Amino acid sequence: MDKWLEISIKVTHEAVEAVAEMLRVQGARNGVAIEDPVLINTLRNSGTWQLTDIPEQTNTEVVTVTAYYPEDAELKERLARIEKELGVIESRIGKFRFGPTLFRNISEHDWANEWKQYFHVTRVGKSLVIKPTWEEYVPQKGDRVLHLDPGMAFGTGTHHTTNMCMQILEEIVKPDMTVFDVGCGSGILAMTAALLGAKTIKAVDIDGKAVQVARENIALNQLSDAIATAQGDLLHGTAGQADIIVANIIADIIIMLLPDIPGKLKPQGKFLASGIIDERLADVEAKAKEVGMKIIEVKHKGGWSAVLMGRTRDA
Q1: Is residue 25 part of a domain?
Q2: Domain count, the chain
């Protein structure tokens, strides 16, 4: 069984994205977890997720950023780089940490299963229903049910970023479309597109474990004929052009991705970007304008933004 080192850093809201991106760059496996007390309280009060087992958060100033690294020969050097980069961030934005970095040894089985008590059947938009594989649900008329086991990959549909993407996809996906899902995680957005009628979907993630989880979920939902999965960085592995490209990542990666987007879209194609904290929305919009993209719609929820864009030359 694989062994992992869990690294948790308690930070200010201002530092969340910088720390999360740094941990990702340093090789965090299967994404970076962000435990934002403001988001937890918002979800508790939303009625969309059964969070009765999680108490109301009182200290809303401290956000916990957590990453997982394999216990291998590279771990010692990786930890030294992380500590150095934390110092670089502090020199740039000032003191942002609450206490020392916390470490915990954990098995893959523990990591993948300990949170399941908090993930329940969730309805998104008009017709989408996310059903964890370990729960029972009787579909109602018109339901499009996603059977999901995120395993060690990001994407349960309960986070605001994923939730907003699913809602927008429900509005824009049409039959026979081609969709690219960049940073597919559990495969939830690729499967959403398929259930909504897209004909050809390519789901790509830089993390091999995420690709494995996505393939398992896609097969579970009998969508393997519609969705091709591949391990790759950003748009690598997505030959051709798409009617819709969706990327639920973070602002810095979206900004890095944007210059390639216009050339990968069909005429009248759309780019849906999410995972953007509200404070970075202006940066994403500025880069979009610079590369010839226009903003069509912006959704906000719980401090996060999702942006739907089109090519300026298609106007």
Answers
A1: yes
A2: 2
Contact 4, 78 (CB under 8 A): no
Please identify, among 56, 89, 113, the residue that sits at the C-terminal boundary of a domain.
113
Cα separation, 19 vs 23, in Å, equals: 6
Chain segment 65-90, per-residue pLDDT in tens:
988 888 888 899 999 999 999 999 99
Residue 166 phi/psi, 5-degree rounding, is -65, -40
| Segment among 56-65, 96-105, 234-243 with least mean pLDDT | 56-65
> Is the separation of the CB atoms in 235 and 264 below 8 Å?
yes
Provide the token pair at 211. Answer: 């690709």
Whole-Å CA distances, 206 to 25, 30, 105, 232, 237:
11, 9, 24, 5, 10
User: Do 234 and 304 share a domain, yes or no?
Assistant: yes
Q: What is the pLDDT of residues 184-242, one digit of tens each?
A: 888 999 999 999 999 999 999 887 878 888 899 899 999 999 999 999 888 887 889 99
The CATH number for 34's domain is 3.30.70.100
DSSP state at residue 256: H
CA distances from 50 to 19, 103, 192 (A): 29, 29, 22
Which secondary structure element, helix H or strand E, spans residue 79, and what is its range? helix 75-93
Question: Which residue range(s) make up the domain with 245?
Answer: 159-314
